[in-house]
Amino acid sequence: MNLFRKWRESLNGLFGSGGTGSSDRHLKELAAEAERASPGARWAVFNRLGDAYLKEDDRIRALRYFGKAIDALLEDDQPEPARAVAKKVIRLHPEAIRTLCTLTWLDLASMKVGAAVASLEEYVTVAKEGKRERLACGQILEMARLFSDTTFLEATVKALETLGCSEDSAQAAEWAASGGSPTAPEDRKQLYISCLKAAIGSNKKMKAKGSLA
User: What is the CATH number of domain 1-91?
Assistant: First the structure.
């Protein structure tokens, strides 16, 4: 049976006259099939499953499936849809530290400096409140190493200082003063590849540490 047809039938069971047990079974079956599909096909189903669970007020499952959608999009090299889903997660769960980090990387990959600075500031706030400063400092210093824009570099200096990482802040300040890190990518394509790779790596790392979103 077509994957999207199964999804529609699952939602009919979820919001129609069928019992919740039946609807839950349909959604689980669809989720299992989505796991076996290609990334290009399954991200949309994961996203819709997240929407369905959100309508059922099951925020945990909604966040889990939105996260799976982001994973699939990153794997399929689709940063813009991944950014859209990430923003949805943050609206639902503003403390989503893993997603905020991923979103900052995706903003950088797309050369959206203003958006990257805004995402970075949110990331710093959540990291500080969640006592995840050291992990965040490592990610932010790597962002500063790769992205040579002066506005963003100055934002990383402030961010690292706010998180108490004074040595990292000094390093970022040095790069800002000299126009960027000597190991920063030389062209836009390489920057895109490096930032997307970093987004995937940071996402997996924080997920392995138990971060739901």
Answer: 1.25.40
The single-letter code of the amino acid at 34 is A
The pLDDT tens digits of the residues spanning 115-172 come to 999 999 999 999 999 999 999 999 999 999 999 999 999 999 999 999 999 999 999 9
CA distance 6 to 41: 13
Average pLDDT, stretch 164-186?
97
**Domain residue limits, the chain:** 1-91, 94-213
CA angle 144, 119, 52 (to 5 degrees): 135
Tracing tokens 């994961």 back to the chain, one arrives at 46
Per-residue burial over 131-164, b if 16 or more Cβ lie within 10 Å, else e, is ebbebbbebbbbbbbbbbbeebbbbbbbbbbbbe
Paired tokens of 21:
């047990």
The CA-based dihedral angle spanning residues 118, 119, 123, 124, taken in that order and rounded to the nearest 10 degrees = -30
Q: Do the beta carbons of residue 160 and residue 169 sit within 8 Å?
A: yes
Q: Are 127 and 133 in contact (CB under 8 A)?
A: yes
